[in-house]
From TrEMBL:
<feature type="transmembrane region" description="Helical">
    <location>
        <begin position="110"/>
        <end position="132"/>
    </location>
</feature>
<protein>
    <submittedName>
        <fullName>Major facilitator superfamily protein</fullName>
    </submittedName>
</protein>
<dbReference type="InterPro" id="IPR036259">
    <property type="entry name" value="MFS_trans_sf"/>
</dbReference>
<dbReference type="Pfam" id="PF07690">
    <property type="entry name" value="MFS_1"/>
</dbReference>
<dbReference type="InterPro" id="IPR052714">
    <property type="entry name" value="MFS_Exporter"/>
</dbReference>
<dbReference type="InterPro" id="IPR020846">
    <property type="entry name" value="MFS_dom"/>
</dbReference>
<feature type="domain" description="Major facilitator superfamily (MFS) profile">
    <location>
        <begin position="20"/>
        <end position="201"/>
    </location>
</feature>
<keyword id="KW-0812">Transmembrane</keyword>
<feature type="transmembrane region" description="Helical">
    <location>
        <begin position="21"/>
        <end position="44"/>
    </location>
</feature>
<dbReference type="GO" id="GO:0005886">
    <property type="term" value="C:plasma membrane"/>
</dbReference>
<dbReference type="InterPro" id="IPR001958">
    <property type="entry name" value="Tet-R_TetA/multi-R_MdtG-like"/>
</dbReference>
<feature type="transmembrane region" description="Helical">
    <location>
        <begin position="85"/>
        <end position="104"/>
    </location>
</feature>
<keyword id="KW-1133">Transmembrane helix</keyword>
<dbReference type="GO" id="GO:0022857">
    <property type="term" value="F:transmembrane transporter activity"/>
</dbReference>
<keyword id="KW-0472">Membrane</keyword>
<feature type="transmembrane region" description="Helical">
    <location>
        <begin position="144"/>
        <end position="166"/>
    </location>
</feature>
<feature type="transmembrane region" description="Helical">
    <location>
        <begin position="172"/>
        <end position="194"/>
    </location>
</feature>
Length: 201
């Protein structure tokens, strides 16, 4: 019953709109799952490379710094150059950042990497929400945005479970490769979205 209403709404859309929204939804699930996989595992990784509890907090906080610093300019970029570009930036950063965790083991470098990783959520959430708003019919825009926003809580539920499992059974290297891989698949999905609305309009 929970899925009846959104499925009914989606079935009323033309083929192109339905395709765009479904691809966006898939990209959102992959992005949030990749991002959330770090929540239970990255603090352990920082500790394992010699970080103190205070340094764990500092490195983890770097994510918010990247988000806060870059979100305003990414919003302007979405208006000037298009929402899809900003969405692609977000997914690309999410796919690139995990390779840094494979290489960097010093706390200062991990801090700067975490700031870079924060750009992903600043870009993705801005581009994703704006794209959904552009694509959704005006009469049910709020409803569609609410359905499409479910990617975040679903990803935040699934990601930590997968991340914790991979870290425990396969180690950090496979965890980081997995998060990079699913973010890259999300990037491929995002690249297939066709935005009917031009930048600056």
């Amino acid at each position: 019953m929970f899925f009846a209403s959104p499925l009914k709404a989606f079935n009323t859309f033309d083929t192109d709109l339905r395709r765009n929204l479904l691809i966006l939804f898939a990209a959102g699930l992959l992005f949030w799952s990749s991002t959330a996989a770090f929540l239970p595992t990255l603090p352990l990784y920082i500790q394992d490379v010699g970080g103190s509890k205070q340094e764990i907090g500092i490195v983890m906080g770097g994510f918010a710094i990247g988000l806060l610093l870059f979100r305003p300019m990414l919003g302007k970029l979405a208006d000037k150059r298009g929402r899809k570009l900003v969405l692609l930036i977000g997914t690309a950063v999410a796919a690139i950042a995990p390779f840094g965790y494979l290489v960097f083991t010093s706390i200062p470098l991990l801090f700067w990497l975490r700031i870079f990783h924060g750009i992903s959520i600043a870009a993705f959430t801005t581009g994703y929400t704006a794209l959904v708003a552009d694509l959704a019919p005006v009469s049910i825009r709020g409803e569609i945005i609410s359905y499409m926003s479910l990617t975040a809580p679903i990803g935040l539920a699934v990601g930590p479970a997968i991340g914790g499992y991979l870290q425990e059974t396969s180690g950090y290297s496979r965890l980081f490769l997995f998060t990079a891989t699913i973010a890259f698949i999300g990037l491929l999905c995002a690249s297939q979205v066709i935005n009917r609305h031009s930048a600056g309009k």
